[in-house]
Amino acid sequence: MTVRTDRIGARPPGAIAGRLPDTGPRATARRVGAMVLRYSFLFAKSWPRLVELIYWPTVQVVLWGLISQFFLHHSSWLVQASGALLAAALLWDVLFRSELGVAVSFMEEMWSRNLGSLFVAPLRPYEMAAALLTMSLLRTLIGMVPASVVAILLYEYSIYDLGLPLLAFFVNLMVMGWAFGLVVCGLLFRWGLGAESVAWFAIFAIAPISGIYYPISELPSWAQAIAMALPPAHVFEGMRAVMFQGVFRTDLFLYASGLNALYVTIGVVAFLYAFGVARRRGLILNSGAE
After folding, report:
1. What is the CA radius of gyration of the chain?
2. In the predicted model, is pLDDT for residue 172 greater than 70?
3. Most buried residue, 64, 142, 192, 258, by most Cβ within 10 Å?
4. Residue range 35-68, pLDDT digits in tens
């Protein structure tokens, strides 16, 4: 006997009792809403993603507001602004590249889900830290040398005119970037790739109070106190002293070096501590997950 299934009111093929239709505007809106909810859950799960949304516009407003105010009240600096800004931009990139060089090398292992395999091999955490710092130095040099040559060719400005003080500035900024990078790697150990965005904006947290494009004296008094506790502030003050006064300030160099010794120690301790926590909790093998 053949059973007719084309009678009026019969459900279309694939339809299930109680199931909402898969087509139409309401179905589309429902699916879009579900995806928005999914991405909202990612923000709730990973606080760095939420901070990043607020962070960039705020830093841009603060940083460029301070630059505008400085040049408004110190028009005489405009005569030498080109060289000062180029030198500041190149040195700031040393700090940024050194931090990013550590973090990105570490994240490449996480993206490839290779971190667990590395530590199955006889690789100690301090050996990995040393490799990350070495790669950071190489990445920074590869990025900075061509940029400095472009500045010479296009703007007839050579940062190498700073002489030996340039080496002191470079080393101090590299070490500070390493300290930040190791702390970021510690966060990645703990939070996984949910903390990936921290690697890109962490160093910019100190940009407005580092005196990159303006003297520290332009900051509010409370911000000056914080700036003096950071090595980049002493480095950029020293850079301006060399450029505008022709003097290498040993006191600023020693302050920056002492602070860097403290910060890189904190970075190493944070990295090793985070590794220990990740190993005990079994997070290393799942390091490529959110």
Report:
1. 26
2. yes
3. 192
4. 666 656 665 666 665 665 565 556 555 655 566 5
Angle between helix axes 250-281 and 231-240 (nearest 10 degrees) is 150
pLDDT at position 190 over 50? yes
Give the pair of three-digit tokens for residue 273.
Answer: 């501590």
Look-up of token digits 């100690």 = 124
Find how far residue 109's CA is from the centre of its chain. Answer: 17
Q: What are the pLDDT digits (tens) for 238-275? A: 998 998 888 999 999 999 999 999 999 999 999 999 98
Q: Are 255 and 172 in contact (CB under 8 A)?
A: no
Q: Nearest to residue 202, comparing CAs of 229, 172, 176, 223?
A: 176
> Which tens digits make up the pLDDT trace of 72-108?
565 555 555 556 777 888 888 889 889 988 888 888 8
What tokens does 45 get?
């799960």
Q: What is the DSSP letter of 19?
A: P
Q: Is the pTM of this model over 0.85?
A: no
Q: If we measure between CA atoms, which residue out of 203, 233, 232, 229 comes closest to residue 218?
A: 233
52, 197 contact by CB (below 8 A): yes
